[in-house]
Structures are given as C-alpha cells and as structure tokens.
Write a structure and sequence with these properties.
17% helix
Length: 76
C-alpha cells in the first residue's frame, strides 16, 4: 500500500503513480495519444486532435485520400 495515497495500486493523482502509457503515437507530431483523448484513425496511423485542428481543409482532405472536384458545365 502506498504511504501517500493509501491505495494499491496508487491513485492516478498520487505522485507515486506510474506515468500513463499512450494507446498509440500520432503520426503528425509523434506525441502519445492517451486513453480518453480523441484522434483521427487512418490506415497510415493515428492523428491527434491537436494536429487535426492545426490542419487546413486541403491538408485534411489529403490525409483522408480525397481531393476537391473541378466543376464542369456538363456537371449541372
């Protein structure tokens, strides 16, 4: 039993608690993505919410394997 938090294993807020382990690593920033965090799941890997938020629309489309269409008069 921990002398500080009096729990076994330690409470996550205890200074003796082990560091949380990431579920996966972001392919954008290479930082860990931890339980409870949101991310974009792609075949190439995961992209964290912060990296998705920093992308412009074209970059996001590129990651999703999409591209903008070019309009032609015959389309309408």
């Amino acid at each position: 039993m921990c002398a500080i938090c009096r729990k076994e294993p330690c409470d996550s807020r205890c200074p003796n608690a082990p560091e949380p382990q990431p579920v996966t690593i972001c392919i954008g920033c290479e930082e860990g993505i931890y339980p409870g965090e949101k991310y974009l799941d792609l075949p190439e890997g995961a992209i964290c919410e912060a990296c998705v938020g920093a992308m412009n629309g074209r970059e996001l489309l590129e990651y999703l394997g999409q591209e903008l269409c070019e309009a032609h008069e015959s389309d309408f």
